[in-house]
Structure formats: structure tokens, C-alpha cells
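The material for today's practical consists of a large collection of protein records. Getting from the letters to the C-alpha cells is the skill we practise here. To make this concrete, we reproduce a full record directly below:
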Amino acid sequence: MKMRWLSNPLYLAADLFTKLVLLNFLWAVFTLLGLIVFGLAPATVALFTQLRRMTWKQDESVQLYGLMSSFYRTWKAEFVRANLFATGFYSLLLIWGINLMIMPVTEGGMQLAMMVSNSLFGAVLLLLLLFWFPVYVHFDLKWSDALKVTAMIPFRNLWTTALTVTAVAGFLTVLYLFPPLISFVGISGLAWLVMIASKKSFLHVQPVQS
């Protein structure tokens, strides 16, 4: 039988904060271990994998040591696959960056058209990046299928998407006002918000994937 204080809201909040701090630290360490470029994707996959365990209550007794060992195992196992999948997004980011650099040297209608198209492309890319990692760790899909699901989720439940974007914007505002928090929960807190929102969206997508 669980002790009563384990269900106390203050304890649960402190427990969540502690785990987010640990996950934020692990994400930074393993990103650096992969020389940033090669460590970013697998470290983020490992982060979302642990957050999925926590939000979907797969393991009611997730301990700090368990998070650390599971994080490392996931990072190691997904290193190659996650980097291969991330190459597609790196390519899209490169294309977007090139367009942004070209835009200032254009004039008139061409510049306006590029401004509108780059803004739309950036917004779509942001939505894809928000939901890509939750989809990756929740479903076992090929690249093309995962991309389809990721592209479908933001438009499947517009209300949830709007709340997610608002929550992310609010969280980023808090980080801007209190920069020291970035070192503690900057990445893990943001990922946790996205994972919570994705859980609601997956309830609508699951029947399609079964």
C-alpha cells in the first residue's frame, strides 16, 4: 500500500520537478557526448521516451536511477536511427535557412511572396518539430508513415494544437523572464508540455494506427 503522502500534490509536484531537472541535465550531457550535431536527435528521443513513461503511467514507480539507466539505453539504441530520421528535418531547416538568407536581396513582389511563403513554411516546420518526437517514441513507424501522422496531428484537433502552442509560448516567456530556469527545466519542461498535449492527440490517432 502506498503511503498517503506519496499522493500529496506538493510531493507530486516536487517529484515531477526533480525528474525534469535530471532529464534536462541528461539531455544536455548526451547531446554533448554526440558532439551536439549527432547527439541532439538521440538525446531528444531518449528524453521523450522517459517523459512518455511518466505521462502514460507505464511505470508508477519510476525512480531517478531508473530514468538515468533507461535514458542511456535509449540514447545508445536509437543513436543511428534517430540521426537518420533527423536528417530529413536538418534538410528542411537548411532549405528554410537558405530562403531566409536570399529574401533580403529580393525586391518588390518577389520579396513579399518569399516572406509569406517562408513564414508559412516556418510555421508548418515548427508544428512538425513539436509533434515529431512524441510520434517517434509512441508509434513504431517508418519515416514516411511517421511524417504523415505528425502532419495530421496538428490539424486533427485544432483546439489541442492551439492550447499546445499557447502553453509553449507561455513557458518560453517564463524562461525569458527567469533565464536561470533554462539550466534546470528549459528543455525537459518544454518537452513535458508537448508530451502532455500529444497524449490527448494520440487518443484520436490510435484507432487509425491499430
